[in-house]
Design brief:
The protein has 40 residues and is mostly helical. It has one domain (2-36). The protein is 82% helix and 0% strand. The chain has 2 helices and no strands. The longest helix is centred in the first third of the chain and has 20 residues, at 2-21. The protein is elongated. It starts with a helix and ends with a helix.
Length: 40
Amino acid sequence: MRFLLWSLIPSASFLGGALATGTPEALWIAALGGLLAPSG
């Protein structure tokens, strides 16, 4: 569960940035990037 939490934190921040830019492609790339390569 802790790993899941740590993988969601960077994903959420990336999704926030993608939503700010308004590009769905960036949103999907950020979501996959946050899940596949969590920081830490």
